[in-house]
Amino acid sequence: MSGGSKQSVRMAMDVLELNFLTVQLADQSINDIKKRDCEEVCENLRIITLEQLSRHDRHDDCWIAVYDRVYDCTAFIGKHPGGQDVILEYAGRDATLAFVDSGHSVEANRILRDYLIGQLPPHERLWLPNRIKVNRN
Ligand code: HEM
């Protein structure tokens, strides 16, 4: 291998390592947010049933559930960078997999917190606590 090629390979490896570190850092902050959320959620939040959630399924009254927490995202729909329709599709129901699969950033997870209004009752929870947790972020 020529000197130039070796240098290119070295640079590519440096970039890979940097990407790996960045992903690790993002994982860390998301996990911090989730841990803190979980502790707060269990204590103080209003209980909202799936039936109550299902009644808020409109553009002007839009709640979704993510990881068993309920968010009133009515005020955010018009500002959503991914468009209104993707959120409306999940209005009144669980949006966890859609939210996680869209690869939302740490910032998106922070914004979501601003709209937190409640949590599902323990017997209606899919994810928290002691249940399977998808962690693709
Ligand atoms: C209140 C709930 C939501 C919040 C706060 C939110 C926030 C955001 C933010 C800040 C972005 C910009 C990129 C980023 O920072 O990750 C984004 C992009 C996106 N969101 Fe959401 N989102 C929400 C719900 C959803 C749901 C339920 C879906 C369902 C599929 C979705 C799908 C997407 C997609 C596809 C993009 C990418 C848009 C693009 O890059 O063109 N979002 N979201």
Automatic annotation (TrEMBL):
GO molecular function list: heme binding; metal ion binding
Xref: SMART domains: Cyt-b5
Pfam families (UniProt xref): Cyt-b5
Cytochrome b5 heme-binding domain mapped to chain residues: 45-121
Source organism, top-level taxon: Eukaryota
PROSITE patterns referenced in this protein's UniProt entry, alphabetically: CYTOCHROME_B5_1 (PS00191), CYTOCHROME_B5_2 (PS50255)
Signal peptide (UniProt feature, chain positions): none
Keywords recorded for this protein, A-Z: Heme, Iron, Metal-binding
Gene Ontology CC entries for this record: membrane
Presence of the UniProt keyword Secreted in the record: no
This protein's name: CYB5_0 protein
Origin species: Fopius arisanus
Gene name of the encoded protein: CYB5_0
